């Protein structure tokens, strides 16, 4: 186990333990995608280690966990698990890890409800609503043919859900290792995403809410409970600026740790305003979500990335409809949605 600090830090190998801050270990688990990793953090507790997120389900990741727990600094046990949100790379192994470690698991109420909703879809393998949902965006035949494959790919990253959960919410405080960690939640990327910050302001664990060099997904998919995720995202980030300590080391779920999280939040807010401006400038005539995705630079995306591009475009234009800037009409025969400035 090694210790590194500063912007030159080299990420740990999969399953390797790295001291990233006093009393905090950093490791990585595997994701079967272009973004091939998720960062997992372990905080020293009074009698073991408190874990943030589980990684996606796979035999390889289960083996990594078993080896990692054996190699933890004494006492080599897990005392608690907090799941930041219900996306598969964060919750996929949560049920298994809860059983394996016999540790209490913490999650927000809306996230566990979202996880259970999606689990019902996975258990029935019912993808019948997918073609209709994406056809309203004027998805191409090529896009439609890849949809079921995309969702089956995601299904593989989910394992069993945790059977017993402790519900946490924004404003709560968790005691870990005799120190207080304050919780905050926001929507948009996921419905009630939890972040936690040390009371001293030295460290903030951000999950997918803030990531350096990556703008998190904010989209409308066929299982979304949010009707206007971008509105929730923009409001949440604006609130988060005041919550983040300006001195905090930000520990994200992907890429490297970084400082100046408030500045990164402002960059992401500006990114979305730029995207909205692009849409406004191209809605002087009726356009579909498919056409507008090209306006945002996503015309060449394929497979899973194409689905995300359509969903993000859908979320952005829906936001403009809800602000009254854009109107939407449905084609009578095809059911395709068309948008234009009001």
UniProtKB/TrEMBL annotation:
Xref: InterPro entries: Metallo-B-lactamas, RibonucZ/Hydroxyglut_hydro, Sec-metab_biosynth-thioest, WH-like_DNA-bd_sf
Residue ranges of domain Metallo-beta-lactamase in the record: 37-254
Domain of life of the native organism: Bacteria
Classification via SMART domains: Lactamase_B
Pfam family, one: Lactamase_B
Protein name in the entry: MBL fold metallo-hydrolase
Organism annotation: Psychrobacter namhaensis
Taxonomic lineage: Bacteria, Pseudomonadati, Pseudomonadota, Gammaproteobacteria, Moraxellales
